[in-house]
Fold these 4 entries.
Entry 1:
Amino acid sequence: MGPKDRVTTRLVPLGVAVVVTVAALAQVSCSGCARRRLARPQVAATVFPVYDIVRRLAGDRLDVHLILAPGLDAHSYEPRPRDVATLADSSLIFAVGLELDGWAQDLARSAGAGEARVFEMGPLMDPILAPQGLIRTEPFIDGHFWLDPLRAERAVDVIVEALGALDPVGGPFYRGRGEELKRSFQALHEDIASRAARWSSRRIVSFHGSLFYFASRYDLEVVGVVEPVPGQEPTARQLAALLDLLRGPEPAVLFSEPQMDDVLADALAREAGVSAWDIDPMGGRPGTESYERLMRQVVAVMDQALR
Ligand SMILES: [Zn+2]
């Protein structure tokens, strides 16, 4: 953690407290009057892949806000005061859950939105329990369900339902757009499946526990994870085990992620004499401005890394 991070950590709780106090005062001075009137209902999503689905379903019927700015790590995110303001106005907050964005619940409470308005989608997506022994002794659940396009299709259905409950008049509109999105995700899946069938390497080491859904859908095997607990560096023994996987007779392919510690990934790659292939599982950056583009970026890298 650099000096800049430390300042942020110290300032944020203070900022949140100030905003909450202002909100509380506003409520007292305005008891009985309606919430601030906004032209359209406001909804929010914690991470880009979910946000992209929600905004495409919402069209111009709802305003959709993204909480986690692209390029940041969801696991270690320190919410900012303006996130509290965004959530205070939101009727519904789409989150992943499964320990990926646990800060969303606290944020919603700070914003006076209440836990009831946070909709955790991960538990509905047939969560995958990472096998035990992958450098971490206790099992953990991967939260990155969207890296499987068929689960992303299921997410479309779930979000269509939720938006229809929020805005019943818009129900048919959301359903129509949902069908369109699912057709696009289905085509994406078929394309990935045909490419994945040609990959000759199938053993992978991911930087954090993000690739279990992708691997399970396209018949890859996650044999190791560098940081099963994001931000917690592997011990010397764990590093030795990872090096064995990368150098073994059937070497696994190493993937790094831009939101994570690239110094560690590069050091590991150098030591093993292999490449670290950078993939972005979160998206929302130049080149990954839609769910499909995010997935195509992952697959383009895998085409190179696993051929
Ligand atoms: Zn993650």
Entry 2:
Amino acid sequence: MAVAGAPRLLASGLLAVLPLWACDVGDTSEPGLQHLELLQQQLRLLAGARHPEALPLTWVHFPKAGSSFLNVLVHTPGFCPGVPLTVSIDEDSFGCRFATNFFNACPDLCDPASVRCQASPHECIGSRYPELEGHMVGLFRQPEQRILSAYHDEARTWMVLGTDCTHQNSTKPPAPIFARYFAGTVAYQLVGEGLLNYGGGHHWLPGLLDIPERTVEMAEEAVRRLQGFAFVGITEEWDLSICLFRKIFGGPCHALDFSNTRSSFPGKQAEDFYDTAPLEGFQDEIDRIVYQEALRIFRQDLLQHNVSMDSCHDCFAQAGRH
Ligand SMILES: *[C@@H]1O[C@H](CO)[C@@H](O)[C@H](O)[C@H]1NC(C)=O
Ligand SMILES: *[C@@H]1O[C@H](CO)[C@@H](O)[C@H](O)[C@H]1NC(C)=O
């Protein structure tokens, strides 16, 4: 697979890095106690915004939870100086396996102190949790919606590793059977080791036929590991999630970061829900446990960072969302 976009990106050279949180620092010339309080508040904001202890970030990418999030990461000032703000990491610039191709080019494009160039987009955490704790960022999606999104992904069967993008074998079992294969794989990605030597990468998420049994105990450990995330987003709450990420890590709100680069069908947005009837009542009891905790953390972080549709107004306006 040719990496069509990489040479063009490399040739474009370094970006002028935008000042972090320039707007929040504001006018500090006001004298007196009010000024001091304001300054202290701003310093706290600044420290919180940069979160130096969280760097380098590791993107934990669960299939179908939103590969568009890669744009948000690379467009964060200083993270990937080799990627201009106007470039979207998607199938047009990096081919069908765009996330894989991007990570192959990553060492030339990104600052290793800010973002970890992982060996594959869908990594498993496994025994590396102690070293990745506090550095992980990721989006979580309602489990049955994630299953159906995978089921409708015609470019990828997800059943057999390596059959993606070929469009050659989209033989799929009926939806309720597929769901049983796909269920619990968020818990597995957070706790399981993955494949250690596949395609030159490490800790790859295996094909669905090869993932070991997922258990409630695995989900419980996954819930513990969610506490090691520096950012938890929710796919169904895309706009608020991106706004929250920008509040925590800084950077401009950019139109590209709010677009879905890999719709399952034209016009499909993450906010539109699949009809779950084809699952015939099947529910993902394992990943539901993980998702509930992700929702809890997300809501708590929205409150902590004062992120709401209202407070994100400027961010959304900047991205042309209104
Ligand atoms: C296509 O998928 C079916 C069912 O998973 C499998 O038995 C078959 O070997 C696959 N064919 C190819 C060419 O990969
Ligand atoms: C939270 O955001 C609102 C705007 O939605 C703003 O009016 C309010 O002052 C903010 N609160 C804090 C504590 O920053």
Entry 3:
Amino acid sequence: MSIAQTFESAFDFEKFIAVRFDDLGFSVKVNNKQNEPGYDFLAIKGQRIIAVQVKNYKNKVSIKQVTKFRDYMDRSNIKEGAIISSKGFSVPAIASIAAEKVKNFHMGHLCENKITWDYLSQSINKKAAKQKSSHYISVFTAKGGVGKTVVSAHLAGAFAISGYKVSMVDGDPEENLFRLTGENASVPNSRTGQSNRVKVSKISDWDATMLDEESITIFDCSPSFERNSLNLLKKTESFIIPTSLSPLEIGNKAEVLLKTIDKIRGCNTTASIFIILNKYYIPNRKEQQRYYDIKTIISGLGDYKCLMIDPEKKVSIRESKLLRNWGTESDLAFKTVAGRCYPRDDFLRLTEYLMEHLNIS
Ligand SMILES: Nc1ncnc2c1ncn2[C@@H]1O[C@H](COP(=O)(O)OP(=O)(O)O)[C@@H](O)[C@H]1O
Ligand SMILES: [Mg+2]
């Protein structure tokens, strides 16, 4: 007789599973609308809310049941869900989720009083969750007007669209970002039609202890290195250096980039550094050569954690009217025009690139 059969009612089984989530460090909120389809309880930890459905059936959970719950999640805008079954899942049900590498969805069954995971898209484990902490990204170039503020805000927006809890800190005493967005930047998402919000703090109001686990903090720096918070620069795990290839912006021999990297390394020897080309357009042959020359100069530093992102093969932020004119409202420049939005595409690609290169969970 399997352990699940010893439960007298579906409710007992549900309670048992709820306690397992409690063991994993979640607080549990039971859904009182019992007759509605959907979840049985919410498991809550920090910003993370998992809608959990438990199934105490005679048979294994089928693809159809999984799909039904995922459809319900989409309709109800639920960000993370789990099904816990007393009898496990059919092999195709697990394969269908695993093949798509579905994010934010978990499938588990009860085995010897513990949940055994058949599919886990991210850790639910108490220990692993504790190890996570905010990832600090600083956007810094030792030069004004290169796009630090534009890149900070839109990178934060792209992380928010990708499901991350992001906050921004305006580190520039000029407060360009804060004056523009106020305490929240709104991130239009044309796919869902709903806006996300990204919190923006002034450096004077910012307090590291306010941050939740698993969040990303993006710091929009002042071009004058000394005016930034040394504490934050030291905490930074990834620096993003936005720049164009223009000799006026970075100097004929990339002097501005070299100075930027030198300043960063002066206080932080371990962070990853990514140079991203901003205001990018299709280059002519001479401009292409300039890119290679500058890349050679940067590689010549021998700093293996400092990468110049290839604008053609990887990512660049294209020159766009939307970004040039951004600033009349706190909405980010992510609205589609005729179904397209270059800034949105570019910043999502940058997010994807960073995820591949960094230890962001
Ligand atoms: N990819 C881009 N396409 C078009 N204009 C841009 C782009 N990136 C930045 N800009 C414009 O360049 C100017 C400087 O940007 P900003 O983010 O304020 O630079 P910084 O913070 O480095 O001083 C702004 O007018 C901004 O709209
Ligand atoms: Mg700025």
Entry 4:
Amino acid sequence: MMMRRHVIKYVIVTCLIVFVISTVFCFKEKTEVQAKEKPLVLVLDPGHGGSQSGAARDNEKVEEKDLNLKIAIYLKQELESYENTEVYLTRTGDEEIELPERIQFAVEKRADALISLHNNAAGPCAAYDHGCTVLAAKDGYKDALARKGQELSCNILNELTKLGLTNQGILTRDSEADERYPNQVLADYYAIIRGGVENDMLTVLVEHAFIDSNSDYKAYLSSDEKLKSLACADATGIARYYQLVKKSQENTVNHGKCLLEPLKEYKEKLVHVVDGNAKHNEISYKTYYGVESKQLPYDMETFDQITKDINESVISMHISCD
Ligand SMILES: [Zn+2]
């Protein structure tokens, strides 16, 4: 009798374990299949081009448009080393492309994100003359989209700062021509950001460093290797935000686990430009990825937690079986 009870208990426990393990594998397979069905589409936009040289360094033949293109080419290479990622460039040479065309290109590619790549020069709207900043959509119209843009900005700034660049925060800016969104809130000042909002497309503009700052130029922009480092930082920030997996890790036992740690309790400075005059800027701080926010892109945190819970219950069942 004791023996029979033991056998029944053993069969039940075995069935449970098989069920639990198959559930884990099904979940994992489903996640991978879903991920493969829809690749992450990123459009990189090297700022300026052709007769529009962007910012420049006096006395030296260094123009922003060329630096932006090099960063974009390196960034494309680096992003393509991640699984299931499609990357397009709005220009691959020294071409002049208007902003609406760049936005339209990204819309046609059904981009998950449009990332415009620039380098800064000192001007009246910001009270700083060196360091990195990311321009993103302001709050007040499509808040969920604005939040995503700000979160991607946090990830990029976090990586650029690791190179030693001064983090000048996220910059949002009001239209100075009284352009408004349908809810009457002042529109975003920058056409590419506004175009992204109007097309429900996550759009950010990265100002890597100041081309007219001697220290920034020397440390971050003065060689191809340095531009490559900027591109790698951008790629890591993007990969961290989207929880991308490196292609080389695809067939390892750790597949699905080799992800960059998501940001936690990340506090970022927001500079809101109200009228183009630095002394009127509104400065605030926001915490992103706080303990209350559980949803990550691709929901990997939930996946990991479920896997952990199931593994723990399998272990406890083994114990009860003995
Ligand atoms: Zn520019």
